[in-house]
Amino acid sequence: METRSWSVAAFGLLFVGAHEIATDYNQTRSVHFASEMSMEMEQTSSRMERDGQPVENPWGSGGMSSATTRQLEWTDKLLEHKDGAPTKVQRKFGEQKQGSTMVFGENERSDERDGALAGVTLELTLGDGGEVEAKAIEGDAPGESLKGHRLTLSLDAFLPEKAVDDGDAWELDAAAVKRGLALDLNPILFPPPTEEPSGDSGRGRRGPRGGSGGMLLMSAEWEGKATLSDSTEEYDGAACQIIKLEIEADGTLEEPSFGGGRGRAFGLEAAAVFETTYEVKLEGRLLYDAIKKLPVRLELEGKAKIESNRSFEREGSTTKMESTQEGTIRLEATASVE
Fold this sequence. Notes:
The protein is mostly beta strands. It is built from five helices and 14 strands. It is 11% helix and 51% strand. Strands 1, 2, 3, 4, 5, 6, 7, 8, 9, 10, 11, 12, 13 and 14 form a 14-stranded antiparallel beta sheet that branches. The longest helix has 12 residues, at 2-13.
């Protein structure tokens, strides 16, 4: 009876005073990570004019809309560690899928791809220079997909770098947000497709351009704030600490230049003006299990807005187009000890 009373009291002390909130890399264990993300956008306004006169929407009454999804799954087995940090990890990739659907009036275009490392097991080792060296020990991995890996869990990016008290907040820079959302892995797991050069330009296209949801998430200049709540919530049988997250981004997306030689190749008589601005705001939370010393669940959702302005001349006629897209973003991720 006395032993039980001591255990309950000790458990309560975990949430009193400063908290060391960090993933435990001092024990050999396997952690399974899974993530699902979706982004849906719909055109909410559109205006087009030629030489100052209104022109009918080229997409008809249906307008434009898009949906982007991504599923990630892998298991990390810690093999070696030093000074509380992992030095060798075996990462077994499970399902990796990325899909997109775009609707233009009555026309629809869909694409779904498996990740380059689906079904592959990598051995990741910390090199002498601090870089991570990767080699495939099961399955075939493209060379470009062996670069850019990290030994730590993606969700670690949202954790504080030092002990914090209830109510304390810390800033999240763009690199931390991309890491926490696993966006830094997109070029590794889903490298953009290439097309053979065509026409006189001698150039092929590579990947989607500025206005797509997927490109927005990758290009956005993220920033955010994390705050440790003074309350807890039960998850998977444990009382977890709650880290509140506020993440946002706004700015201008890079656009291709159609002036000069390229402008003439597209039949444009003067440099075109293409400008796309965006706003994204996400809110949610990260649950941290102080017993397992592991961030166990991430929940984020929010809204995005994209505004596009286009102006160009062709055959002596000036065309201007303006459009606004609005939509929602949702992301869930879990980490569990196997």
